[in-house]
Amino acid sequence: MAIVACPQCGSKQLRVSHRRGFSQRMLSIAGIFPFRCRQCDHRFTAPIWSLSGIRYARCPKCYRMELSTWSEQYYHPPWLTVAKLRLGATPYRCEYCRCNFASFRACKERFSWRHRRKQSQAGTGAKDAAGE
């Protein structure tokens, strides 16, 4: 998914909006979904599918690809998810909306809190060294 941003304010704090009418339902089949900005409340449509990302898993709620995994030991999934897991699917968790799901597709962007922390610490250390 190309990172979708609000065309009005440029924010990336988005949620998937409800589809209105037959035409938006047909557009969603083609990968063009309605979004709503959480900051300015602007509603717009944007494409989420790209040919390079179609083979990777994405969250069924927010369509993001930043995923981690979960364990059945701590979460009791619905029966359909359990059936997918028994057939060999991988358990994924969206780090943005915290949705647990199973998919047969590979993960493109593995989310890691350690990696995210190292990047933020490296960025602040570079600013301190520069005298900012």
Strand content: 15-25%
H and E string: EHEEEHEEEH
How many domains is the backbone divided into? 2
Summed over residues and divided by their number, the pLDDT gives a mean of 79
Count of helical regions:
3
Describe the protein.
The chain has 132 residues and is α+β, with helices and mostly antiparallel strands. The chain has helices at 21-29, 79-86, 113-130; strands at 14-16, 32-37, 43-47, 66-68, 90-94, 100-103, 109-110. The strands form 2 sheets. Strands 6-5-4-7 form a 4-stranded mixed beta sheet. β5 (90-94) and β6 (100-103) form a beta hairpin. The longest helix is centred in the C-terminal third of the chain and has 18 residues, at 113-130.
Core attributes:
disordered C terminus; 2 domains; 132 residues; 27% helix; alpha+beta; four-stranded mixed beta sheet
Give the helix/strand layout.
Layout: E1 14-16, H1 21-29, E2 32-37, E3 43-47, E4 66-68, H2 79-86, E5 90-94, E6 100-103, E7 109-110, H3 113-130
Parallel strand pairs: 4-7
Antiparallel strand pairs: 1-2, 2-3, 4-5, 5-6
Give a short summary of the structure.
This protein is α+β, with helices and mostly antiparallel strands. It has helices at 21-29, 79-86, 113-130, and strands spanning 14-16, 32-37, 43-47, 66-68, 90-94, 100-103, 109-110. 27% of the residues lie in helices and 21% in strands.
